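hiii so um. not sure if this is the right channel but i have a protein structure encoded as tokens and i wanna go backwards to a sequence. like what aa goes where. can anyone help
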């Protein structure tokens, strides 16, 4: 039976007919108005989620709970955590939660305790981090490494990139401030710019790739090795040993590329790429903030795992976040989702969530292989809130699209600094966060005197939002935040009956690019007649080849 046909879905459809006629302003003016925040916000440890600006009532939540029950959410949670093969199209479990289990835990997969493997790996990673921090990892000329370049893309880039920026205030062990850079784009522009500024003698590259076949990453890695070769006259083997660490699920491919065994860090095929920053893919994070900070991040994520596993529907942050998203998408017909952090340290969170949510749930085929007839993942995008105010908030306030927003902000910042200007800047940012979510919800009718304004100055409101308030951005609370979103994505996938852990939609384009590379490299006939492409592609290819000959 399709989720569409469940009694709960039908009841929600009926309820939505009424709720579509109800403005958020009315919900704040009604009898429940003063208690709305108290009854519609939930917290766990360092996170508070305010759902009171969502277009929901207690009835909505009860019906969503019934839908979660009809879809057997609790069973699915149990299957996720126990290592059941829930990624059926790739025939494996999705066990990113195992990466943050505390030491001495037990999780058996094929009768083998994978929690133990995780901690062996963490120890290996810790010893690499220690060597580098201690200045004992030296480049080909004997100078200690002081600069790290992570080469990876997608899940092998976005998580560590986001975390390194988010946790800039977390201090590495005294005196071991490394510069950490990230290179992902295949066109070479990032690496070309970066190499110009770096010293080959003191730069260490981490080649991060679960598959170790991703052409974007391997071409950047080859460029890096070529740069080292041009700068030195030592053997490639020495450059590989002193200047490269490999992080991958494929030891064999790392060997083939030339990464020595003791410079390799492994992880497992049961860790999805976009769920991998908790594994050795997180090495740049550990290098940036130190191993204790990295472990605190894992602990925060583990605390969220336990909360997700055990908290009842009414108190469960990821469940509520996911189900209210389903309400917006499937019942209020909202198909755009803006991620708006009010803290510059979270500038990479939107890009991270774009991959996490859209690569996981951007699907239209059910677990049973049927085309589904309801909406799944919305279009997600975002920007640091204060900057977005000067860019796309015009559309949020006065455009024709309904958009749901997540406002994300830490309550405390700069408290330890003796700089009242910076402290005031933080309050300014919070004031803007509160003002924008208030105006989006209530419209200008909440603001005395604006009702009479000309129509082009009016704000209709009724744009729903969730505010995620973090006590303070620390490795621990950051771990909680990211695990919150991971589980939210899982909850939605259960309701939509899709597999969130595969990504077949990214494969064919890569293969087609390989075919198109041949004429561009002149390895295949360059005349149109002999090539099998469509007329647009042929036209563009010919134009490119012609221009390249000029
Ligand atoms: O092309 C998509 C993808 O497979 C992502 O799922 C993944 O995070 C990224 O490419 C990088 O893959 P890898 O870590 O194997 O290089």
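sure thing!! here u go:
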């Amino acid at each position: 039976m399709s989720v569409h046909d469940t009694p709960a879905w039908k009841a929600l459809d009926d309820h939505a007919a009424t709720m579509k006629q109800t403005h958020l302003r009315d919900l704040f003016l009604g009898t429940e108005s003063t208690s709305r925040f108290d009854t519609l916000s939930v917290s766990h440890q360092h996170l508070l989620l305010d759902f009171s600006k969502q277009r929901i009532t207690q009835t909505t939540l009860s019906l969503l709970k019934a839908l979660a029950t009809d879809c057997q959410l609790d069973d699915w949670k149990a299957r996720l955590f126990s290592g059941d093969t829930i990624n059926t199209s790739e025939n494996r479990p999705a066990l990113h939660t195992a990466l943050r289990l505390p030491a001495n835990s037990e999780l058996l997969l094929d009768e083998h305790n994978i929690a133990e493997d995780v901690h062996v790996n963490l120890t290996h990673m810790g010893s690499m981090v220690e060597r580098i921090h201690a200045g004992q990892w030296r480049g080909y000329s004997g100078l200690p490494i002081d600069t790290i370049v992570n080469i990876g893309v997608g899940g092998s880039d976005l998580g560590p990139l986001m975390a390194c920026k988010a946790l800039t205030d977390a201090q590495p062990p005294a005196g071991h401030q490394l510069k950490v850079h990230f290179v992902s784009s295949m066109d070479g522009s990032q690496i070309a710019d970066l190499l110009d500024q770096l010293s080959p003698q003191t730069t260490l590259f981490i080649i991060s790739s679960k598959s170790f076949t991703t052409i974007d990453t391997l071409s950047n890695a080859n460029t890096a090795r070529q740069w080292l070769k041009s700068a030195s006259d030592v053997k490639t083997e020495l450059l590989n040993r002193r200047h490269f660490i490999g992080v991958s699920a494929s030891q064999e491919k790392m060997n083939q590329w030339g990464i020595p065994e003791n410079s390799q860090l492994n992880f497992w095929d049961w860790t999805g790429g976009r769920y991998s920053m908790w594994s050795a893919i997180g090495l740049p994070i550990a290098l940036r903030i130190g191993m204790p900070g990295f472990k605190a991040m894992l602990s925060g994520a583990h605390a969220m795992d336990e909360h997700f596993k055990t908290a009842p529907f009414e108190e469960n942050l990821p469940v509520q976040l996911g189900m209210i998203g389903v309400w917006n998408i499937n019942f209020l017909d909202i198909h755009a989702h803006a991620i708006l952090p009010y803290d510059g340290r979270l500038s990479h969170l939107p890009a991270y969530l774009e991959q996490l949510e859209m690569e996981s749930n951007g699907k239209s085929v059910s677990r049973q292989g049927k085309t589904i007839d309801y909406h799944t993942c919305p279009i997600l995008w975002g920007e640091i809130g204060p900057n977005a105010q000067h860019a796309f908030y015009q559309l949020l306030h006065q455009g024709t699209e309904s958009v749901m927003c997540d406002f994300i902000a830490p309550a405390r910042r700069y408290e330890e600094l003796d700089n009242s200007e910076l402290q005031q800047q933080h309050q300014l940012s919070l004031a803007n966060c509160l003002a924008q979510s208030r105006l989006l919800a209530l419209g200008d009718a909440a603001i005395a005197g604006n009702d009479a304004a000309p129509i082009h100055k009016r704000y209709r409101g009724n744009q729903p939002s969730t505010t995620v308030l973090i006590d303070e951005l620390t490795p621990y609370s950051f771990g909680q935040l990211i695990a919150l979103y991971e589980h939210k994505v899982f909850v939605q996938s259960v309701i939509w009956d899709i597999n969130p852990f595969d990504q077949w939609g990214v494969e064919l384009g890569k293969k087609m690019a390989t075919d198109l590379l041949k004429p561009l490299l002149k390895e295949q006939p360059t005349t149109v007649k002999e090539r099998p492409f469509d007329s647009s592609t042929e036209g563009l290819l010919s134009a490119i080849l012609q221009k390249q000959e000029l």
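oh and The pocket of 6-O-phosphono-beta-D-fructofuranose is lined by residues 153-156, 209-211, 214, 217, 273-274, 359, 503, 506 (CB under 6 Å).
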